Amino acid sequence: MENLISLVNKIQRACTALGDHGEAATSLPTLWDSLPSIAVVGGQSSGKSSVLESVVGKDFLPRGSGIVTRRPLVLQLQKIDEGNREYAEFLHLPRKRFTDFGDVRKEIQDETDRETGRTRQISTVPIHLSIYSPNVVNLTLIDLPGLTKVAVEGQPDSIVQDIENMVHSYIEKPNCIILAITPANQDLATSDAIKISREVDPTGERTIGVLTKIDLMDKGTDAVEMLEGRAYRLKYPWIGVVNRSQADINKNVDMIAARRREREYFSNTPEYKHLAHRMGSEHLAKMLSKHLEAVIKSKIPGIQSLISKTIADLETELSRLGKPIAADEGGKLYAIMEICRTFDQIFKEHLDGVRPGGDKIYNVFDNQLPAALKRLQFDKQLSMENIRKLITEADGYQPHLIAPEQGYRRLIESSLTSIRGPAEAAVDAVHSLLKDLVHKAISQTVELKQYPGLRVEVTNAASDSLERMREESKKSTLQLVDMECGYLTVDYFRKLPQDVDKGGNPTHSIFDRYNDSYLRRIGSTVLSYVNMVCASLRHSIPKSIVHCQVREAKRSLLDHFFIEIGKYESKRLSSLLNEDPAVMERRTALAKRLELYRSAQAEIDSAAWSK
């Protein structure tokens, strides 16, 4: 059982070291709130400090008028073997042991001032103090600032509400045990501790009442009704204590003598004799230790489940935010290259069908290009009027003898030139689809979301590469059309005399061949040839586009960018890896919190194995 309190002590220290103080305002998961604890609550001058010193058996807390405790003090008591010298350690001074408890008091004051300045402000950041002694029980208490009703000089008017809010933030947690310190010589109805504990624990399930200053009650009065729970009932019995008086403190009366006098007071006072066995600071410490052990034991399984779930949640969010970048130039360059390779791989997966989108390129070749070729209006170029015009212009001053070869060439060339439009449109359509795939790949590259500067650079570099590839593809594709215009398929036309012999009229003179029948036959021949060329280009244009754009994009989309970033200075590389400061802060905070939860998990597992 003693190991359980030590276990919670370790986790609480880790919480403080890694910034988990249980603040409600944070968006981070808090482990602090799930840990069982005992919060000491009381008004100013209620004897709260004296109760804590009696439990410890040492005079170590700051004293004075007004608000003395201005930060939560997590007091962890650990019993050591008899004969060993007692000492104290602060979490913020891990390698320093205090054997003079007057120095402990001074360090509490100094550490409070370091956090709040030399003002009378309060802070929610706790001070962790561990005391190792043969004369204590294993116990952890959280001493909170005393409740007050009026701000003193040098304090803001909000100090009363600020303290109440801080106390509330601790005692409203369902795992918090409330140690309510109430002076017996004041009306219980006006007790600050009872009033605030009732607000969060109306049934008294989590509240343990402590009556102080019983020896200072007016003559003829006693605290029996309160100690027996008849004045205000709680689940656990009230405990009375008799603290050192101010005169005793001034005379440096030691705690051993004070405890002896306390025992004698309850044993020898007739009103309290029947209650003496459960009165006094020694009984209070033992009862609190046993109670805290029992609560921790009941809560450990739930804490383990919470830790496992939170670790998984933190790891998921950290993975989404991405890894932090190395500080050196080589590390930054490597990080940029790795991110770019990730993007490039995603882009290739879109083209190869692993991810959707690449199939739209095939649609350009299978539907869009054939449809565009089919829509070409060759009828305009091959109208009777245009055929007659081009044939006669091609003949010049001397009509053709057998076949109007130059006229044929001009008609074919003017018809084939119109194929340039669909060819260019196919190139542009594939370019547009490749750009869309680039944007998809960028949006799917998690690391690029992390670095807006790099995302812009990669987008621009990929767009520039695609633009260069489009120009090259357009040049190559149009060359295919131009080659068809520049060199006609001779074998096709060698068949023409045979066709004429089979279907023509040899009695016509050369000069009669400009009639409509003859021109229609020329138009039919040219259209047949142009359709043959269209059928050929329908297959060769996609090959050119795939070679110049699609395959080249797969092979070298960011090659030019890789060459350029190799020339960047460190400052330029850093600018590419600048990310949203909020993301950086969130990642750092999550990493610290994950470290805390893993540490807590390891501590709990270790305790389970040792048990």
Automatic annotation (TrEMBL):
Lineage of the organism: Eukaryota, Viridiplantae, Streptophyta, Embryophyta, Tracheophyta
Protein name, per record: Dynamin-like protein 1E
Species per Swiss-Prot/TrEMBL record: Medicago truncatula (Barrel medic)
Stretches assigned to the GED domain: 519-611
InterPro entries: Dynamin, Dynamin_GTPase, Dynamin_GTPase_CS, Dynamin_N, Dynamin_stalk, G_DYNAMIN_dom, GED, GED_dom
Coiled coil: none
PANTHER family attached to this UniProt entry: DYNAMIN (PTHR11566), PHRAGMOPLASTIN DRP1A (PTHR11566:SF159)
Compartments where located: Cytoplasm, Cytoskeleton, Phragmoplast
Classification via Pfam families: Dynamin_M, Dynamin_N, GED
GO CC list: cytoplasm; microtubule; phragmoplast; plasma membrane
Biological process terms in GO annotation: cell division; clathrin-dependent endocytosis
Family: Belongs to the TRAFAC class dynamin-like GTPase superfamily. Dynamin/Fzo/YdjA family.
Keyword Lyase included in the entry's annotation: no
GO molecular function, one term: GTPase activity
Domain Dynamin-type G: 32-301
Entry keywords, A to Z: Cell cycle, Cell division, Cytoplasm, Cytoskeleton, GTP-binding, Hydrolase, Microtubule, Motor protein, Nucleotide-binding
